[in-house]
Structure formats: structure tokens, C-alpha cells
């Protein structure tokens, strides 16, 4: 381990902003833990369906404020994307080459996931598993892919959106919500917010790459202004308090994004910018930096396979024929929450097995030359050139 830490430290370019990688690591951990804590699989008359403790315990909504970290992903993505495109142009790389490299690196691990689950779904159907159960499992695995589609679209539009002021997409989201909720407009209009809503933190990241958002006053304005706006929308405009989807809820802040999700994202971006100072100090320690680098190196694998890991553990638990609290029992009390916390290390172990099986698809050909080469050419390459910019 000491040798690995030493190699990672020596492979890191001196000018690398380690806080950016630390933010990305925190964001991926937030997504994984969030899904593991608010998603449950329960059986009802032989059919497996999804459930959530937020459905039975609305007081847990504040947990979603900590674990829904998508805005931080798009903030970092905008910063790295804008900086990377500028660096590529400086090296004479064309837009098509720049975009193609990123999309190929994005598609490789996704293709592996789709192939494995296509086979798994076919096997389950042939074995007599009900279509409702198969649909529930596939939905849990595939629904997070919307994030990658939006991220790929914004990445492709980087040259066009880097100069867009965040107030413009905020105005789009505001008008869409006014038409949907205030004037009784069609619900399909909400899908405009999928692009406009996540364009807000992406544009903030692009402004960060251009040298903006450097003073703490701006960060505090984003944090306090976004938090106040979100509180007002929840308390007086009828928006849900949860920042993740809740089964059975009439309105979701995330599917598609609402104005409350956007203002909450502004607060998250402000908090992330305020954390840059501490995050630059902590990864300065070689051991802490090695942990951050390894999380970034496996970010896509963790994102794509964490639901599969949770479902695998749950399936094994169901095969025991016993009701295991916190695993496949109804999430309707604090006992379930405490039990689910105890299951998290088991989910992490299952995810580690998935990582061992599929991480080479994330690292590509370079991953097969050995770990030291991957460390040097992967997350520790100069920012703007790393093959993990998409994460």
C-alpha cells in the first residue's frame, strides 16, 4: 500500500488542482450511498418491486439534501470540460477528435453493463421470473443512465455553452414550471428542464474554468441564495421537500428537474466552492490523495454497477427464505434505517467484486498495461487531458 501511495504521489503533476478530483470523489460517493439508502427491493405476492424509506418516513427528506450530489457532478464536469476543450484547441486537437475520445471512453463501460444485463434479463425470463420483477430490476439499473445521456449532450455542446450565463437556463426552468404547475400546461414540457436545469451548474463550472467564481462572496451568495430560494419553493410553492424521487409521489424534483432542484443545485455549487480550500489541504497528504485518485479512477464503474451490487446482495438474502431487516423488508421504520446502515459494508464488498470484473472497460487498453500506467495516464494526467474527464 505504501508503494502504491508513493507511485500515485510521484505520478501527480505538480500543478494539478486536487480539490477538483476530491469534489468528484465526494459526488460519486454521495450518489452511491444515496441510492443504497433510499432504494429497497421488497416482495409482494411473489413479485419484486421498488420501495423507499422516504415513502413511509417523509421526515427523512433532509437526508436527500446531503446525498443528491448531481449538481456537483455537472459543476465539475463543466469546469473540466471547458478547460479540457481549451487545452485541446491549444494543442491543435479538433473538436471532433476531442469529443470522439470522450464519447468512446464513456460508451465502453456502458456497453459492458447493457450486454451483461441483456443476458441476465433473458435468463430470468426463461427461468420463469415475472415480467414485473424483471422490469423493476432493469429500471433500477438503467434509470441512472439518463445522467450519462445528459452529460454527453452537454459535453458535446461545450463550445456553445461555455459562454452562456447561468441566468438564461434558470429563466427557462422558471417559465416551464410556471406553465406546468401554475397554468396547468402539459406535463411533457418538463422534459425541457432536463437540459436547461443541468445546464445551470455546467455553465457555472465553465465560468469557473474561465477564472470566475474565485471569491468566497460569490460562493456564499450561491449557497445562501440557493438555500433560501429552495426553502421558499418548498414551504410556499408546493414543491416536494425531497430532492430525490419518491415512489407514489405526484411530483418529483428530479424527474424531470424542477426549479427547486435547480435552486438547490445552486446552493450545492456554492457549498462545493467553499469546500475547495479544505479539499486542497486534505489531498495534499499522500495517503488521502491516493484514496481520492483511486475513487476517481473507478468512478464510472462504481456509478454503473452500484445498483447491481445492491440487488445481488438482496437476491442472496431472499434466497435464504428469511426476512432480513434492512435488506428486503418494507422500509417503514427507523429499525429498517439502522439495519440498512449495517448492510452498507456488504454492498460495498459486492461492488468491489463488480469492480474487479468490469473496471478494465472503464480504463480501456491502458488499464491492461498495469496499474502504474493507468495511474499515470488516467486520473493523474494533466487536468483537461485525463481520460476520466467524463466522470
Notes on the protein architecture:
This protein is mainly α and 391 residues long. The protein has one domain (2-377). It is 69% helix and 3% strand. The chain is built from 18 helices and 2 strands. The protein has a two-stranded antiparallel ribbon. The radius of gyration is 21 Å and the shape is globular. It starts with a helix and ends in a 14-residue tail after the last helix. Mean pLDDT is 87; it is low at 366-382 and 384-391.
In short:
With 391 residues, the protein is mainly alpha-helical. It is built from 18 helices and two strands. The protein has one domain.
Which properties best describe this structure?
2 strands, mainly alpha, disordered C terminus, 391 residues, single chain
The domain tally reads 1
> What distance lies between the first and last C-alpha atoms, to the nearest angstrom?
25 Å
Major beta sheet, strand line-up:
1-2
Tell me the radius of gyration. 21 Å
The beta-strand count equals 2
Roughly what is the average pLDDT, rounded to an integer? 87
Pick out the low-confidence regions: 366-382, 384-391
Order of secondary-structure elements: HHEEHHHHHHHHHHHHHHHH
| Structural class based on helices, strands and sheet pairing | mainly alpha
Describe the sheet with the most strands: 2 strands, antiparallel
Morphology call? globular
Beta content: under 5%
Helicity, in percent?
A: 55-70%
Individual helix count: 18
The oligomeric state of the chains shown is single chain
Amino acid at each position: 500500500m505504501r508503494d502504491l501511495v508513493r507511485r500515485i504521489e510521484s505520478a501527480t503533476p505538480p500543478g494539478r488542482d486536487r480539490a477538483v478530483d476530491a469534489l468528484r470523489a465526494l459526488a460519486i460517493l454521495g450518489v452511491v450511498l444515496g441510492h443504497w439508502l433510499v432504494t429497497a427491493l421488497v416482495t409482494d405476492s411473489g413479485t419484486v418491486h421498488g420501495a423507499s424509506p422516504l415513502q413511509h418516513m417523509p421526515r427523512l427528506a433532509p437526508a436527500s439534501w446531503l446525498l443528491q450530489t448531481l449538481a456537483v457532478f455537472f459543476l465539475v464536469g463543466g469546469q473540466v470540460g471547458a478547460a479540457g476543450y481549451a487545452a485541446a484547441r491549444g494543442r491543435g486537437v479538433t473538436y471532433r477528435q476531442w469529443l470522439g475520445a470522450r464519447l468512446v471512453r464513456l460508451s465502453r463501460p456502458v456497453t459492458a453493463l447493457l450486454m451483461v444485463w441483456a443476458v441476465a434479463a433473458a435468463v430470468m425470463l426463461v427461468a420463469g421470473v415475472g415480467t414485473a420483477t424483471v422490469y423493476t430490476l432493469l429500471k433500477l439499473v438503467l434509470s441512472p443512465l439518463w445522467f450519462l445521456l445528459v452529460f454527453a449532450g452537454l459535453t458535446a455542446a461545450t463550445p456553445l455553452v461555455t459562454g452562456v450565463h447561468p441566468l438564461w437556463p434558470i429563466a427557462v426552468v422558471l417559465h416551464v414550471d410556471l406553465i406546468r404547475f401554475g397554468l396547468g400546461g402539459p406535463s411533457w414540457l418538463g422534459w425541457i428542464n432536463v437540459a436547461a436545469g443541468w445546464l445551470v451548474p455546467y455553465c457555472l463550472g465553465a465560468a469557473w474554468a474561465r477564472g470566475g467564481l474565485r471569491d468566497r462572496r460569490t460562493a456564499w451568495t450561491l449557497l445562501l441564495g440557493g438555500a433560501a430560494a429552495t426553502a421558499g419553493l418548498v414551504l410556499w410553492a408546493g414543491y416536494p421537500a425531497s430532492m430525490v424521487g419518491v415512489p407514489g409521489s405526484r411530483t418529483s424534483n428530479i424527474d424531470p428537474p424542477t426549479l427547486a432542484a435547480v435552486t438547490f443545485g445552486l446552493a450545492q455549487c456554492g457549498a462545493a466552492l467553499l469546500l475547495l480550500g479544505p479539499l486542497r489541504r486534505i489531498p495534499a497528504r499522500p495517503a488521502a490523495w491516493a484514496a481520492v485518485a483511486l475513487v476517481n479512477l473507478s468512478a464510472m464503474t462504481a456509478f454503473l454497477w452500484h445498483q447491481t451490487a445492491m440487488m445481488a446482495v438482496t437476491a442472496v438474502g431472499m434466497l435464504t427464505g428469511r426476512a432480513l431487516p434492512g435488506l428486503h423488508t418494507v422500509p417503514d421504520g427507523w429499525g429498517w434505517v439502522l439495519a440498512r446502515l449495517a448492510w452498507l459494508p456488504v454492498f460495498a464488498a459486492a461492488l468491489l467484486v463488480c469492480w474487479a470484473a468490469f473496471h478494465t472497460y472503464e480504463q480501456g487498453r491502458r488499464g491492461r498495461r498495469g496499474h502504474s500506467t493507468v495511474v499515470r495516464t488516467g486520473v493523474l494526467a494533466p487536468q483537461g487531458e485525463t481520460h476520466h474527464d467524463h466522470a
